[in-house]
Amino acid sequence: MPIFAAVIVSAYLLSILSINIAAPDEVIEPDNFPLECPEDSLNCSMIGPKTYRSENLTELRINSSLEEVMDEVRRWIDSQPGTEVIGEWPGQTHSVFRTLMFRFPDDFVVKGFCDNGETILHVYSKSRLGVSDIGVNKARVLSFSDYMSHVEMATSDCT
Predict the structure, then answer these.
(1) Separation of alpha carbons 93 and 86, rounded Å
(2) CA pair distance 18, 34, nearest whole angstrom
(3) What is the value of pTM for the model shown?
(4) Which residues contact 143 (CB under 8 A, 6 or more apart)?
(5) β partners of residue 111
(6) Which residues are 84's β-sheet partners?
(7) Which residues touch 8 (CB under 8 Å, ≥6 apart)?
(8) Are 152 and 131 within 8 A, CB to CB?
(9) pLDDT tens profile 121-141
(10) How far apart, in whole angstroms, are the C-alpha atoms of residue 110 and residue 108?
(11) Residues 103-118: pLDDT tens digits?
(12) DSSP string of 54-104?
C-alpha cells in the first residue's frame, strides 16, 4: 500500500509541475490590457467595450476616486481563496486565481481610469489552459461586479 500512495502523490506532483510549466505567470501590464476575449471562447469573460459572457456589461462606473476604487478592487481580490496579485499599478491590478486541487491558473485583470469625474472599471478573466471553464470566469466577473456595485466608498471625483 505505501508504494501505491507514493505513486499517487508523485502523479499529483507531476501534474502540478506540468500545469505550472504549461501555463507560467506572465504579467499583463497596463499597455497590454486585453481588448477582447477570443472569439467563441468558453473560458473567458469580460466587462469592457467588447463585453463577453458578462451579462452585456460594458463597464462599471463608480462615483469615487480611482485610488479608492482600486483599493477596494484589491480588498475583493484579497478576500478570494487561491488568489495572488502578480502585477499592480495605480490603474490596474493583475491577479491569478488558482483552483484548489490542481492549481489551474485563471488571469483576473482589472483596469481603472477616469471619465467625466467617475472611475470606470474594465474587467478581464480568462483561464490559461483548457477549452471551457465550466462558467467559473463568468461567475467570478459577475461576483466582482456585484461586490463593486454594492460596496460603500466615499463619493468623490475621479481626476
Answers:
(1) 8
(2) 26
(3) 0.92
(4) none
(5) 92, 122
(6) 96
(7) none
(8) no
(9) 999 999 999 888 999 999 999
(10) 7
(11) 889 999 999 999 999 9
(12) STT---EEESS-HHHHHHHHHHHHHHSTTEEEEEEETTEEEEEEE-TTT--
Cell 460596496 belongs to 151
User: What pLDDT score was predicted for residue 85?
Assistant: 98
Helices within the chain (DSSP H only): 2-22, 66-79, 136-150
Rounded to the nearest 10 degrees, the angle between the axes of helix 66-79 and helix 136-150 is 130
Cell match 499529483: residue? 12
Q: What is the pLDDT of residues 6-22, one digit of tens each?
A: 878 788 788 777 777 87
Please, where are the H alpha helices in 23-157?
66-79, 136-150
The average pLDDT across 96-102 equals 86
Taking a C-beta distance cutoff of 8 angstroms, is the pair 48, 36 a contact? yes
The answer to whether the beta carbons of residues 4 and 90 sit under 8 Å apart is: no
End-to-end CA distance of the chain: 65
Q: How confident is the model at residue 67 (pLDDT cuts 50, 70, 90)?
A: very high
* Structural domains of the chain ordered from first start: 26-150 (3.30.310.80)
Which grid coordinates belong to 32?
497590454
Cell numbers linked to 8? 499517487
